[in-house]
Amino acid sequence: MNYTGVREVEVVVIGAGQAGLAAAFHLRRAGHEPDRDFVVLDHSPRPGGAWQFRWPTLTYDKVHGMHALPGMTLTDADPQRPSSEVIGGYFDSYEQTFGLRVHRPVSVLAVREGGGGPPWTEPVGALGGKRLRVETSEGDYATRALINATGTWDRPFWPRFPGQETFGGRQLHSAQYDGPERFRGARVVVVGGGTSAVQQLMEIAPVAAATTWVTRRPPVFREGPFGEEQGRAAVALVEERVRQGLPPRSVVSVTGLPMTEAIRRARESGVLERLPLFERLTPTGVVWADGRTVEADVILYATGFRAAIDHLAPLRLREPGGGIRMEGTRTLRDARVHLVGYGPSASTIGANRAGRAAVRDIRRLLAADHQLSYAEDALADSRAS
Fold first, then answer.
1. Which InterPro entries is this protein grouped with (predicted)?
2. How many CB atoms lie within 10 A of CB 112?
3. Whether residue 216 sits in one domain with residue 124
4. Which site in 23, 85, 260, 383 is 20 to 30 Å from 112, CA atoms measured?
């Protein structure tokens, strides 16, 4: 239906990365029709989620823990091809195979209460007749439920340091990294202790004049296999922060860095010799509290990302601690809103599971809503007669 130019659907999925496609698959498998019962909105120019933006030297064999989407495995991938091409092509085939009809590029501007307009003025059903209004660059949608799968790529975190504005060299975030050539002959300071920091540092070191690696905390390198028990323990730590209403840390931040042969060689050669975080920047480099200095031409901030959920601000889902409390994938402040690929589900396998769980929960909500609506309609008809 369409009321005053607003398209009405049962579910809106925002984002077509791993979590969004998993949710769309489970909606389709449950009998919901794309563009009739649900719609998938993605602001990226092409399929691939955040993977399409990865640097070209990140080949598929360097990707850790890429889990297949539900219903279709990724086979015969060339390990030497850029991961952006391999996974982008896989996501594209997945969308076509299951007919998910992703709308792109579409920017979601805000999600808010739907307000008036027939038939939303009468408080009926389990949801009280309330719909969410999703305002987008292609028009507005009215939906009974929302699956937000926007990930973090659009919100790179830039730390602030005294003297940052005085530095005379280049400063960039790892999201802007496009390979090592831009760093040839430069003195480079890499800030951050995650996987991207390590991978990019190891690529830059052979061509740079000098590299310095700094992290807030000493990095933890994980030896041996990482099984289900360790994975559950790591996810539990992230879930605890979410339960407390705090912004989630990434799952990777509590698992440590996997000790590969390449990392072992880099440690032995001194490339991964870590220094504590500096105190401030100067026009020519960085300075520590004890007076130590390092001259630099480039500062590369591999400092991670934050959840891209600003469009949900009108719903006031955040707790005083800055996070969003959840039960499973459902936000506690609004049962219609589910976050997948957020917090404990911010991994490829976690995103798959979260997409399935969100759809299962939403189907129960919609069923209850429809049953109560029918009962109230029948009661109204009996009274009228």
1. Auxin_biosynth/cation_transpt, FAD/NAD-bd_sf
2. 16
3. no
4. 23
Residues 6+ apart with CB under 8 A from 51: 17, 83, 84, 87, 88, 91
Residue at a domain's end among 266, 301, 336:
301
Most confident of 20-29, 253-262, 325-334: 20-29
How many structural domains is the chain composed of?
A: 2
Q: Show the tokens assigned to 350.
A: 């976690």
Residue 105 sits at the vertex; the CA angle it makes with 103 and 106, to the nearest 5 degrees, is 75
| C-alpha span between 204 and 181 (Å, rounded) | 8
Last residue of a domain, one of 301, 332, 361: 301
Smallest Cα–Cα separation from 39: which of 6, 70, 11, 7?
11
354 and 278, same structural domain?
Answer: no
How many other β-carbons are positioned within 10 Å of the β-carbon of residue 137? 12
CA–CA distance, 318 with 315 (Å, rounded to integer) = 9
Average pLDDT, rounded, for the chain: 87
Helices 195-204 and 261-269 sit at what angle, rounded to 10 degrees?
60
Taking alpha carbons only, the member of 118, 194, 207 closest to residue 346 is 194
SS3 287: strand
